[in-house]
Design goal:
Layout: H1 8-11, H2 18-30, H3 32-43, E1 52-57, E2 62-67, E3 70-71, H4 73-86, E4 90-95, E5 102-106, H5 107-123, E6 131-135, H6 140-152, E7 155-158, H7 165-175, E8 179-183, E9 186-188, E10 191-193, H8 195-202, E11 211-215, E12 229-231, H9 232-237, E13 248-249, E14 253-259, E15 267-272, H10 274-287, E16 295-298, H11 305-317, E17 321-325, H12 336-344, E18 348-351, H13 353-362, H14 365-368, E19 377-381, H15 387-397, E20 403-407, E21 440-444, E22 458-463, E23 472-473, H16 477-485, E24 491-500, E25 506-511, E26 515-518, E27 521-524, H17 525-533, E28 538-548, E29 552-561, H18 569-582, E30 591-594, H19 608-615, H20 633-639
Parallel strand pairs: 4-17, 6-7, 6-8, 8-11, 11-12, 16-17, 16-18, 18-19, 19-20, 29-30
Antiparallel strand pairs: 1-2, 3-13, 4-5, 9-10, 14-15, 15-23, 21-22, 22-24, 24-25, 26-27, 28-29
The structure holds 5'-O-[(S)-ethoxy(hydroxy)phosphoryl]adenosine.
């Protein structure tokens, strides 16, 4: 396949040429401690220097970086830029859902807002190490609250605003949080989202919550439970706007972010202070080739890891102006992104393939009517990007002048792992290309042997630790070990399939475990199945993914109903509603098919491969199904299958 060359615009003023990449990469894998130690001293401000760069035991999943060091993440994201003379420089530009209002916060203003919230949290009893659950939607106070937690050493756990009350409940219980920060209502595509009300339902019978802080956003009337709920804006009016940043140990927890795995229960991915911040900021600087005056816009939601690392921590640690918006790519119409890019003269834009595909469908005129000449780098993340979407992004949006960076990484990795650097390598649509500094990806076969031939698919693992790596599953280190380090001892297993080509470029093929990627959001099939079972309507359920034009992958549910339940539209609707209430709207299956049985082997294992084929539209070719206990069930399922 042809390599798309490095655009001229990317070369001028770059932070990293190919020669520099090769040199640094070689050094980073030859002596990781020396490399990361140098970077950590150069790029972060420490209260106390670390004494040991790393202490790693992959067999016990024991990972520590920058031992003995003391640091504060919020200080590194705010105060040090002010000290360097950037106090009046824009830190966060926020635009509201309707697109009718925007506000730019300088580093000085961010500091004042963050300190006020930090002081309120402190006076209300929040201490270092306490967990704070945040459920706010995309408003600037969300960013300030996260940074305020970081300032006082509280551990935040942000929950995506599209998740349901049950998701809040399980996360509050798992993290044993005592405090929730929320907002009266969010706004999304013109509609209010009743966030506070959802919190109320989520923690109705949870008695560990002492305080619910509520920001006013839409001003809607909401219920306040006396003794528990307080309007934080009132407390902020009298709060002091300075607050000393807590001295944190490098390995103190910074945040927990829940993500789906192949079992029923989402896991609390735990990231710590220094390693995470170094890795987020360095990847941000190099992969987007950030320049001093850049305006940077990542259109992800802060409820996901992309928002944590590349709206908040990475850009702010680099002193970059980060654009944050409350809305969706299609509201009020499909020109939203391009309009914002023109308005704020955005240089670097980062979004997901699913958004790109929906914009392709909406038509080129939305893009063309806006001036995009400020753009230099266009990024994508979340799932494999199909060639058509890549080429559209490159030609129509970037007019062949911008570098496309397809970035592969995970909640667990903290930051980007495999991606092109804009002025270091050419690109191939669909390939995330080469590893970042310090990252040693390998492809292994079932037996765990490293595959050394190009173009042979296997499982993607990473040898050696990197500072941004997650440290544990909150409260369940055993699960951390089993999930990531047990299958291929001595390596971190990503759960993705991949191969590399003769140029050494990596191609990510998607999950090899039972995790679906719907519009870039992760859901475990077991998690969706247990949610459907808990509706009380289904006796047995099997969930698979199938290819979808916009979402990448969509959800297909095969359901054996309980004896007394009608197989009609009402049941179908109730099941979808149940998923919406127990996980969230993004997890609602596209198809629910009622089936008389499931294709099981004699040992009782569901042959998902057959179900995936049926969901994808296959009617005849199922390969070898002779090991099924009842092979005739396959044709019965085919007969009742539903085309999405
Ligand atoms: C998938 C999102 C191909 C992958 C940052 C991974 C990708 C999962 C890419 C992590 C990409 C992410 N190309 N696949 N550029 N980026 N993925 O934790 O399957 O929400 O394991 O992190 O998304 O999803 P997560």
């Amino acid at each position: 396949m042809n390599i798309y060359p490095i655009p001229d615009k990317s070369r001028e003023g770059t932070n990293c040429t190919n020669e520099e990449y090769l040199k640094l990469y070689e050094a980073s894998v030859r002596s990781p401690d020396e490399f990361w130690g140098d970077q950590a001293r150069k790029r972060l401000d420490w209260f106390k220097d670390f004494t040991k760069t790393s202490e790693l035991d992959y067999h016990k999943a024991d990972i520590k970086w920058f031992l003995g060091g003391e640091i504060n993440v919020s200080y590194n994201c705010i105060d040090r830029h002010i000290k360097a003379g950037k106090g009046d420089h824009a830190a966060i530009i926020w635009e509201n859902d309707a697109g009718t209002f925007s506000r730019s916060y300088t580093f000085n203003e961010v500091l004042a807002e963050v300190c006020k919230i930090a002081n309120v949290l402190k006076t209300q009893g929040v201490k270092k190490g306490d967990r704070v659950v945040i459920y706010m939607g995309m408003i600037p106070q969300l960013a300030f609250t996260m940074l305020a937690c970081a300032r006082i050493g509280a551990i935040h756990s942000v929950i995506f605003g599209g998740f349901s009350q049950d998701a809040i409940r399980t996360r509050v219980l798992d993290s044993q949080a005592r405090v929730v920060v929320t907002v009266d209502e969010g706004m999304r595509a013109g509609k209010p989202v009743s966030l506070k009300h959802t919190v109320d339902k989520g923690i109705e019978d949870v008695d560990i919550i002492d305080r619910v802080f509520v920001f006013k956003h839409t001003g809607a009337a909401i219920n306040m439970r006396s003794g528990r709920d307080v309007f934080i804006d009132e407390l902020l009016e009298t709060a002091a706007s300075t607050c000393e940043a807590e001295r944190m140990q490098s390995e103190d927890p910074l945040f927990i972010l829940y993500t789906s795995g192949s079992t029923g229960k989402p896991k609390g991915v735990l990231h710590t202070q220094a390693g995470y911040l170094l890795y987020a900021s360095m990847t941000h600087r190099y992969v987007f080739d950030i320049r001093e005056e850049d305006v940077y816009f990542c259109a992800a939601d802060i409820g996901w890891i992309t928002g944590h690392s590349y709206i908040i921590y990475g850009p702010l640690a680099n002193g970059t102006t980060t654009v944050m918006f409350e809305s969706t790519p299609l509201y009020p119409d499909a020109s939203r992104y391009w309009k914002m890019i023109e308005k704020y003269k955005v240089n670097v834009f980062y979004t997901a393939p699913t958004a790109i595909r929906s914009l392709v469908k909406a038509g080129d005129e939305h893009v063309k009517k806006h001036d995009r000449s400020s753009l230099r780098v266009l990024g994508t993340v979340g799932e494999p990007i199909n060639k058509d979407a890549w080429v559209w992004y490159y030609r129509t949006v970037g007019e062949e002048k911008c570098a496309i960076v397809d970035t592969w990484w995970q909640t667990e990795t903290g930051g980007i792992m495999i991606a092109p650097l804009p002025a270091a390598n050419g690109t191939k649509p669909g390939s995330a290309t080469r590893p970042f500094f310090g990252i040693q990806p390998v492809i292994v076969d079932e037996a765990g042997n490293e595959i050394t031939d190009p173009d042979v698919s296997g499982k993607l693992c990473i040898k050696h630790s990197w500072p941004g790596q997650m440290r544990t599953v909150y409260g369940d280190h055993e699960r951390f070990m089993k999930t990531y380090f047990a299958d291929f001892p001595g390596k971190y297993f990503t759960g993705d399939g991949a191969h590399y080509d003769k140029d050494g470029y990596f191609w990510i093929e998607g999950r090899v475990d039972d995790v679906l990627n719907v519009s870039g959001h992760r859901f475990g099939t077991a998690e969706l199945e247990s949610a459907l079972i808990s509706s009380g309507l289904a006796a047995e359920v099997a969930i698979v993914g199938f290819p979808h034009d916009i979402k990448g992958e969509a959800i297909y549910a095969y359901v054996i109903l309980k004896d007394n339940v009608e197989s009609d539209e009402t049941t179908r609707k109730n099941m979808k509603l149940h998923i919406k209430e127990s996980i969230g709207g993004v997890a609602v299956p596209d198809v629910v098919q009622f089936v008389p049985g499931l294709p099981k082997t004699r040992s009782g294992k569901i042959m998902r491969r057959v179900l995936r084929k049926i969901a994808a539209g296959e009617r005849e070719q199922f390969g070898d199904i002779t090991t099924l206990a009842e092979p005739e069930i396959v044709q019965k399922i085919v007969a009742g299958s539903i085309k999405a």
